[in-house]
Structure formats: C-alpha cells, structure tokens
Amino acid sequence: MMIVMKPTATEEQIRAVIERVESVGARTHLSRGEEVTVIGAIGDREHVQRLELEGSPGVDRVVPILKPYKLASTQFKHGERSVLDIGGRKIGGNNFAMIAGPCTVESREQTLETAQVVKDAGATLFRGGAYKPRTSPYAFQGLGQEGLRLLQEAKDETGLPVVTELMDLRDLDQVLDVADVIQIGARNMQNYSLLSEVGRCGRPALLKRGLSSTLDELLMAAEYILKEGNPSVILCERGIRTFETAYRFTLDLMAVPVLKELTHLPVVVDPSHAAGRRDLVVPLSLAAAAVGADGIIVEVHPRPHEAICDGPQALVADEFADYVDRVQAAAAVAGKALSAV
Ligand code: PEP
Ligand code: MN
C-alpha cells in the first residue's frame, strides 16, 4: 500500500501514520518529493487496510500497489526515478553510465592498462570479473582473491569505482572490500539467498536478467534485494534465449522502455554478452543508448586475441574512446549525458 500525504501534512501527522502502520507489523518507507510525501507500507495488505487510514489527519489517499513487486514498482516512488550515486557518479534519471572493462581480470598488466584506457575515455565505472561463471567447469574460473587485489589496484590508480561479480556468499566479505557495485550474474538472478544477502549488505547491486527470465521475474529478483532495505539496484538487460541461433543471445531492447514503465530503477544494457561478437557491439550500444538505457556495460581488452575469456566480443582498447563518443551522441538523443565526477 502507498499512503499519499497531503501537501499540508505536518511532521507529526506523518509520524503518526508511520507509527500506526508499523504497529500492525508492516514496514514503512518514507519518500519525500518536493510536492508530495509518500509512505510505503510493506506487509500484510489486509492488516494495513484495517487501519482505515483514508481520512486520517494529513492523509490524502491510500493507493494499493497491484504489482507483485512493490518496492521496485513505478507506483512505489510515485513516478519519480531512482538516481544512484556511486562514488560521486550518478546513474539513472538523465545520467548515462559507461561501465567498461575486461570480462575477466587476467593479469596486472591487462587490468591496469584497460582501467587507464577506459578512464581516459570518460568511463563512469570499471568492470572486471575475479569470480567467473563459466559454462564449462574446465574453463578458467577467474583469479579469485588475486583478481580482487588487482581490481583494488586499478581503483587506486584511476579512481574509478569498481563493479565485480559475486557468485558465492562465502566470498562476500572479500568482494565487499573492493566492489563499489556488486554484480549478480545472469545465472544467479534467481539465487534468492544470494540476493537477500546482497540486500542486507547494503552495497549497490547490478542485477543481470537471467537467460530465460521474464521482466516480471527480473523485477521480483530485484525485490529480494530491495526488501532487505537496500534501495540501490541497477537492472541489466544482457540478452535472452530465443529460437534464433544466428547469434549468441537476442538482445531484448524493448525491455528498456517497458522496464521504465514498470520500475523506477535504472536500466543498463550489456551488448557484449548478448552479441558474443565485436562487430555487433557498436550498433547494439547505439541502439540501447537511443532507446533510453541508463547506461552500457561493455567488455574491453587491450589485445582481445589474447583474452582468456570472451575475446571475440571485447572492444579493442585503442578504439574505445571513439566508441564512447558515438554512444554519448546516441544517449544525447534520449536526453541523457555521460555521468562524470
Ligand atoms: C559478465 O558480465 O562477465 C557475465 C558473465 O555476464 P552474464 O552473467 O550476463 O553472462
Ligand atoms: Mn564476459
């Protein structure tokens, strides 16, 4: 339920409503816009309904949120968009995030070189995996702790905040030492204990859409994080499985405007994993920016032919600055500007 307060509501009236809602075991979430104050009540709808808040002092109206996801729904924030602040860089609203870096942290040289290139080209955040979800158990699984150490070094050198994947809760503390944003990979989108724990840790999360997940399932997964009191979730469309076999995944760009109808959370697009091929990454990035994505997460490597993982889809580091210029122009068409410090 969403309790919309009158513009004239006093602090005391707002406090009284919160107390009544919490007295029946529901949790509250206060959101204050310039024009309107909204109290979100999360809990048993019938209990809250029985309070008959409509008509109480200061209350304008009570609106039920009909979607199965509540905190993620557009209604919950009264149509206002979430804007996250990651180390001074904004994501969401009119801010476009360029998240770039290697698929995998492979070596010190490769990591630091890539971090410097993406930073010089104006990237918002640096990405890189230390723990990799690989289809084959025999494939390189990432450098683990050593990878996290290299990410820290890249962060110290460039000042760029770091996005890195958490696969296993046992690695949470170490990942928290370096990650400014925790990535939940497509294969873990429905790992509910992982989602809840990331919610509890409070660190911003980048949640990738599962390979065969609907938008409703993605939003319910986001709800697991939000419901623990962590409001900072970025959704990521990264391609889904369809009947088409001519390319790796089908990048579902329609998900961007539709998610924006359904949720206030920022939505970014990963063209690299969808395409699996470098030549498709540029046009897909332009399309994603033009369709209104809040950012791109893209793989870059100084020497893609030497990459241990995902080389064929990595943008060449030397060409990255040109790429950023082109994507920035497409984002401007959608009214967004590259987010800088
Ligand atoms: C990645 O971003 O490195 C990755 C493995 O992506 P996904 O989970 O979308 O496959
Ligand atoms: Mn990859």
Which descriptors would you attach to this protein?
341 residues, alpha/beta, Alpha-Beta Plaits, TIM Barrel, eight-stranded parallel barrel, elongated, binds phosphoenolpyruvate, binds manganese (II) ion
Outline the secondary-structure elements:
Layout: E1 2-5, H1 11-23, E2 27-32, E3 37-42, H2 45-50, E4 59-63, E5 84-86, E6 89-91, E7 95-101, H3 108-120, E8 125-127, H4 145-158, E9 162-165, H5 172-178, E10 181-184, H6 192-201, E11 205-208, H7 215-226, E12 233-237, H8 255-262, E13 267-269, H9 271-275, H10 278-290, E14 295-301, E15 315-316, H11 320-333, E16 337-338
Parallel strand pairs: 7-8, 7-14, 7-16, 8-9, 9-10, 10-11, 11-12, 12-13, 13-14, 14-15
Antiparallel strand pairs: 1-3, 1-4, 2-3, 5-6
Helix pairs in contact: 3-4, 6-7, 10-11
The structure holds phosphoenolpyruvate (PEP) and manganese (II) ion.
Manganese (II) ion binds at residues 103, 273, 299, 309-310.
Can you describe what's shown?
This protein is of the alpha/beta class and 341 residues long. It has two domains: 2-64, Alpha-Beta Plaits; 84-338, Alpha-Beta Barrel (TIM Barrel). It contains eleven helices and 16 strands. Strands 7-8-9-10-11-12-13-14 form an eight-stranded parallel β-barrel, surrounded by eight helices. The chain has a four-stranded antiparallel β-sheet with strand order 2-3-1-4, covered by helices on one side. Helix 8 (255-262) links the parallel strand 12 and strand 13 (267-269). Helix 3 (108-120) runs parallel beside helix 4. It starts with a strand and ends with a strand. The model has no long low-confidence stretch (mean pLDDT 95). The site of manganese (II) ion has 5 residues, from loops.
